Amino acid sequence: MASSKTSEFPPSRLRPLVTEVSSLLRERKETVSIAETAAGGLVSSSLLSTPGASKIYKGGLTLYTLESRLAFAGWTPENIKTYAGPTPILVGGLADHVRETLKSTYTIGESGTAGPTGSGMGRNRQPGYVALAVSSEQGTFTREVETGQDVREENMVRFAEEGLKLLRDVMKGDAKEKL
């Protein structure tokens, strides 16, 4: 028997978006891959919780550490040396690399500061900041969000939600910011 905790996944805030995005992908016979950091795998696991996920999901990476980006995201030691926190350009590069590698129609890229603390070195290093990108054949679309929260779990869910929203907007032709 499944526990009540299991039945609460994905988080209720994500369910409508996961359903909408999964349905759009299936209807269009398109695929998605994920390059996430501060969301900690929530985008991937939420999409994988839908029936028929194997038809739409090409794979994902949780690139939480700079070392994992060297190993799996095409980064070089120079990227590490010049790293100054998440930015739309950096996240766009992660998304582009993963989309090329996994040959998906879209890739959601996400990197932020979930909290409860930040580095104090600028807006993009403060709790609640996330840079997002969706890589597609039409280009790479980006968005920045500041939640105003320093609660780690809430930010992780919000980062996943914003990544799914950006994917939906790109799929519907509503995304504005393009690299």
How would you explain this protein's 3D organization?
The chain is an alpha/beta fold and 179 residues long. Helices cover 39% and strands 19% of the residues. The protein has helices at residues 15-28, 42-48, 66-72, 77-81, 88-102, 152-172; strands at 32-36, 57-62, 106-112, 129-136, 139-146. A 5-stranded mixed β-sheet has the order 2-1-3-4-5, with helices on both faces. The protein is globular, with a radius of gyration of 15 Å. It starts with 14 loop residues before the first helix and ends in a 7-residue tail after the last helix.
Spell out the blueprint of helices and strands.
Blueprint: H1 15-28, E1 32-36, H2 42-48, E2 57-62, H3 66-72, H4 77-81, H5 88-102, E3 106-112, E4 129-136, E5 139-146, H6 152-172
Parallel strand pairs: 1-2, 1-3
Antiparallel strand pairs: 3-4, 4-5
Helix pairs in contact: 1-6
Order of helices and strands: HEHEHHHEEEH
- Stretches where pLDDT is under 50 for at least 5 consecutive residues are none
Shape: globular
Task: Please tell me the overall pLDDT.
Answer: 94
Percent strand equals 15-25%
Q: From the alpha carbons, calculate the radius of gyration and give it in angstroms.
A: 15 Å
- Secondary structure: helix percent: 25-40%
Largest sheet properties? 5 strands, mixed
Structure described in brief:
The model has no long low-confidence stretch (mean pLDDT 94). This protein has six helices and five strands. The chain is an alpha/beta fold and 179 residues long.
Name a few traits of the molecule.
179 residues, alpha/beta, 5-stranded mixed sheet, 5 strands, 39% helix
